[in-house]
Amino acid sequence: MSKQPVVQLDHITKVIGNKTIIDQLSFELFPGEVVGFLGPNGAGKTTTIRMIVGLMAPTAGEILIQGIDVQQDFEKAISHVGAIVENPELYKYMSGYKNLLHYARMVDGVTEERIDEVIELVGLQNRIEQKVSTYSLGMRQRLGLAQALLHRPSLLILDEPTNGLDPAGIREFRDYLRMVADKEDVCVLVSSHLLSEIELMCDRTLIIQSGKLIGEKQIQKEEVTAEAKKQIVQFQVNPVEKAISILQLQKIVLLYSNQTSFEIEIERDNVPKLVKNLVAEDVSIFAVETRVKSLEDEFLEITGGKSVD
Amino acid sequence: MIKFIRLIQNENMKMFSQVSNWVMLGFYFVIIFFNVAMAPVDETDQFVADPFSYFLSSADTPMVVITTLSIIWAAGIMAAEFSSGTVKLLLIRPVTRTKILWAKYTLVVLYALVLSILYYVLTLMFGFLLYTDASLSSEGVMILAKAAGLSFLESLFMITLAYMIAVISYNRSLALGVSMFLYLTNTVIAFFLQTKPWSKFLFFTQLNLTKYASHDGAVSALNTLAFALCVLGVYFILFVVATWVTFSNRDVAS
Ligand SMILES: Nc1ncnc2c1ncn2[C@@H]1O[C@H](COP(=O)(O)OP(=O)(O)OP(=O)(O)O)[C@@H](O)[C@H]1O
Ligand SMILES: [Mg+2]
Q1: What's the pLDDT tens digit per position in A112-125?
Q2: CATH architecture of residue range(s) A7-218
Q3: Do A55 and B18 make contact, defined as CB atoms within 8 angstroms?
Q4: What architecture (CATH level 2) is domain A230-292?
Q5: Structure ipTM
């Protein structure tokens, strides 16, 4: 990508007490990208986000938003950012509208029309005059998103935004994110530990563990993966031993087997040939299931499935 | 500057959206009316000659209420943002922390000021209704003005103290507890410490300013209103600086 990065983190380190929570973290995000920020509990996702939005100061390193240092010129840098940090905590004793009015007054140039536009965008027009204390969690998430979008930020940071949304809400949210990213050329950083979520809505994923960036992955679109990528395929057959000996002849890597089935890694184009061979050798096939290696597998592979430290 | 005014407007909107604020204001008006209802009909004391002046100079309960309400707000207005987590959305706007800090403070000071003026006006008004022979030139009118003004200064100081404790500790109860304790017991503490010459440099022995309103309340030649204001002024500046320095540099991790 030749575009100017929206955010640059340059060797960010955060030490609290004598614990290094973030360790030399560096990455760049570009316009129009939806980037997943993935990591197990306590990995340092929220801490990183807090530093980007200036709630915490890094111990070392530099954070630039549109080329402006957050620590040096906070007001200018932060005017490009809209964010939800952890839960969208709003003023419960006020109506949704008053909440938005409150944040609108804190920036220049947010008109009443813009407030209405954002309300419509997140679909809250029917409940906006009611107190936030009467809102469901999903509605609060929507209002949280509305406040983050008011001033047309070029960077949208969302910390676990699908927390508490129902499946329909999650899907809608996902579509919505894609729309703002594409239409308004907004860069979106979404943190989550819900791997499947990230996989569905992001172009790229940063994987963080114990404050370190341990992986970065371009998520491929399904049509690409389906053809070129090796897949994991599970066969339910009988007898398994005979089938395995055929596999060995064809030099196919066996991943796993038991009395009724086996799993192999194989390219899509080679599957029909293998099935033909098995049938020719009189092996009964009960089921053939493909499984694209999911981000979850990869995530567990990379992080080693370790527990929170 | 316009931005600062909009911030105060915001704080004001939040304050008046809370039910507790209306309850407290209701309480304030009840106390003022109660004070009027309890007015003596025909009494004087050694300082004032006429009953009207006596009524005005003895109507001091509402002032305690004003300061108490101000302390409650000063303790809560920032601490509440931290305990509810709303501070995270508040501080990620293109507004410096300094502005947010002082906008909240300013609103509480304005609150105390408006309640003090309202108290003065209402009490005077009821005085004229109760005492038909009252005149604006009575000495009570001046005494009441002085008392309301000095009480406002007490409120201002207590607001600053409570706000500092709340901002440094993020703890509303601590700020409220310490400030109310000192406000309610300062005369007792001052009394017990009066033999110690250094005690007059402690802010809580100088907190009672309203005693200077009705007569020369000086404890000694050295302990005058001017001296009290100087001592309080020095502490005031210290509190303001401490509040400001902590708030503008601290990591927000709530
Ligand atoms: N104020 C703090 N003081 C000390 N340690 C902290 C503080 N804030 C966070 N930590 C520690 O930093 C680490 C990272 O925390 P962080 O909240 O950033 O994790 P996270 O990736 O957001 O996790 P989760 O998925 O649970 O939200 C944790 O080990 C946490 O205990
Ligand atoms: Mg988190």
Answers
A1: 999 999 898 888 88
A2: 3-Layer(aba) Sandwich (3.40)
A3: no
A4: 2-Layer Sandwich (3.30)
A5: 0.88
